[in-house]
Write a structure and sequence with these properties.
Layout: H1 12-36, H2 44-61, E1 68-71, H3 77-86, H4 126-139, E2 146-151, H5 158-169, E3 175-181, E4 184-185, E5 188-189, H6 190-193, H7 199-206, E6 209-214, H8 218-226, E7 236-241, H9 264-273
Parallel strand pairs: 1-2, 2-3, 3-7, 6-7
Antiparallel strand pairs: 4-5
Length: 275
Amino acid sequence: MTAVHDAPVRTDSADETVALLAERAREARRLVVDMAAGPRGCHLGGSLSVLDVLIAALHRAARGDGTEVVLSKGHAAAGLYAALHVSGVLPENPAPLYGLAGHPYTGHPGPKVPGVRFPTGSLGHGVPYAAGWAMARRLGGLGGLGIAVAGDGELQEGLVWETVQVAAAQRLGNFVLVVDRNGGQNDGLVADISPLPRLAERFAAFGFDTVTVDGHDLAALTEVFAGDRTGADRPLAVLADTVKGKGVRAVEGKAASHYVTIDAARAAQWKRAIR
């Protein structure tokens, strides 16, 4: 079945939380641009598209209830490092150290980075990591969610769908799979390479609850992540509609934003335009 969510009733506290997360997202975008201006550049487009999802998911994990956030689309590591830093999980600023020898801020994240439990980069693998985490928490009688953040191009990996099938069969109601649906991948548009029509219906057919959300609406994202899903027996698929390169007008929605190396002057220009 497809879950239908009414608009949440806003409160001062909720508004203050969204304002805080929005400021974190702006600062994180500036850090990602700084990483694109480093000696090796970075996967700019996908890092910017997924940032709001990561900010909201890490806010959920900050409850300390055992929720684990796994960035399965590990090539967006720059976005993860930035999100971890502005969320207070990663103390040092990763931007000036990104891609430098002797530091853990590599092009794909690994467990040497505070806040990263599982290494990801080979697409598809982070999804079963998060599902396994959810199962372990449930078997241990513990709370918390296993949240996997995947890309829509990543859904071409068979391992994703094998995990979806197992998660539904095991009734892992505490497993949440978020799809950063920005429509692009390394070689072009997802719709041109391996289209994903009726995606919500596909997940529902496997036995998932589904919800579609604006992946840049922090109020909506925090509402989706708010529940602990205690007692739920259907995993949740969150289809987050996003824009590749979100926040940097010069590259928003452009395939060329997939991997970017820029100079310091352009980075300064782009950062000034982030609002």
